[in-house]
């Protein structure tokens, strides 16, 4: 049971509220006609059509759950999908205006264990993008398969843009040189907020510092934060890089191509 303080009063929000809302949407999943209230049928595999009201309820419920536990990636995902439509349009347009990004929108590559040649990546030299990404996965005990499929975006192309953002997140950790601890996650969220404008990223960048210790908060505001914001605003659209064709490229060269400065030393050394 969660308690949210709103104007001096506490509202109890059960974690099962979000699950109930999801179940409501699933019951409607097989409806294929458009109704007067703007409800649409499935647009892609796994799509769960929702009305504006349902999206609002899902956004509130998932937002509360994500605030309670930032590592609830399922709730963070729902929040991003139900609030990100305008930002996704802007990201899609940026990808279309970039020759490499346009190819990505056409070919729709996915970053999954089934699409990665792990043996080849392990044989690449230190400093190459593919080798450093594989090292990031190993060191942090994470896998690209942990990224959930998009369900609540009511546009097939925009759903892919959200999926691409989601699967590129760990690549950004590698490019930015950030670990998966809270300080590293907040620094990446500051970069992503400036780069994408997604409300989910802005919320994470705003509220994430509340969970940092005083020493890490000082590091964020004095060094990592300004670096992340500056590079997020100035970098090439990170969704417009066909990373699957860049494994052999050096990480240093890829950063230069994106217009991303190397991370502050504190960001690398922070536990």
From TrEMBL:
It is found in: Mitochondrion inner membrane. This is Ubiquinone biosynthesis protein COQ4 homolog, mitochondrial. Belongs to the COQ4 family. Pfam families: Coq4 (PF05019). InterPro entries: Coq4, Coq4_euk. PANTHER family: UBIQUINONE BIOSYNTHESIS PROTEIN, UBIQUINONE BIOSYNTHESIS PROTEIN COQ4 HOMOLOG, MITOCHONDRIAL. Component of a multi-subunit COQ enzyme complex, composed of at least COQ3, COQ4, COQ5, COQ6, COQ7 and COQ9. It catalyses: a 4-hydroxy-3-methoxy-5-(all-trans-polyprenyl)benzoate + H(+) = a 2-methoxy-6-(all-trans-polyprenyl)phenol + CO2. Keywords: Lyase, Membrane, Metal-binding, Mitochondrion, Mitochondrion inner membrane, Ubiquinone biosynthesis, Zinc. GO terms for molecular function: 4-hydroxy-3-methoxy-5-polyprenylbenzoate decarboxylase activity; zinc ion binding. Its EC number is 4.1.1.130. It comes from Gadus morhua. One of its GO terms (cellular component) is extrinsic component of mitochondrial inner membrane.
